[in-house]
Amino acid sequence: MQTVNNVAELRQIIRQWRQAGQSIGFVPTMGNLHAGHIRLVETAKTQADKVVVSIFVNPTQFGPNEDFDSYPRTETQDAEKLAACSADLLFLPGVAEIYPQASQTRVSVAGLSALHCGASRPGHFDGVALVVCKLLNMVQPDLLLLGEKDFQQLTLIRQMVADLNIPVTVRGVATVREADGLAMSSRNGYLNESQRQTAPALYRALISARDTVLAGAADYRAVEEGAKRALQAAGFNVDYFSVCRIADLQSAEPGDAELVVLAAAKLGSTRLIDNVYFCMPSA
After folding, report:
1. So where does (R)-pantoate get bound (predicted)?
2. What are the pLDDT digits (tens) for 132-147?
3. Sign of CA dihedral 53, 157, 69, 182
């Protein structure tokens, strides 16, 4: 595996691959890699000739009181994991390489950016859209692989790619979970032992809401409120718990066919997100 820190070297290697007629898959990450990230790389290996992985903790997607400074940075261990799963190229830029001067351009996906996580983290998705747009221009891959755990982010990036005619196929990869159902996340390491025991209740609440809707419950808002109460009783501070249409992540109503239940909640200071998606049976 090669490692580069600047765009010029990155593009030189990409150019050589292109000249050889090889396809390129891309997995953008913020590092502190876990089995979910490795699944993305392994999936990319089956669908592209070469795989680029980036590690960049992006400052523009963190709010002023969020965990940018404390976010785990484990580049040495990450590089070992990527080499072990046969990634071809690690792009490991510093902030000055991605943002060489104060950016005057904003990338904002109207509507989607203000919902759910965007409501409680203003500016977050603008930062995500900007850095992903920049990374796609740097790497110019054929295939972009993103985890489904960040379902709103995946939906937003798909919209951005479509709106800007970026020539890349966006593919979501299923969430990788611990044995007890907790979605793997770099932030799970913030949980203390008691919180870690409680955390899987978020996924159980999502499954329960899905099953209630599939069983015929017509009042989706009541389903949401019931789940919030159960999570609060378990010790969560619930940000949102929403039954939504997959297409636009707006609140779903009976008659909508493709649904996703989105949730975000804090245990102590650790913010967890998760989702389940499903199709309603046809009449």
Report:
1. 61, 153
2. 999 999 999 999 999 9
3. negative
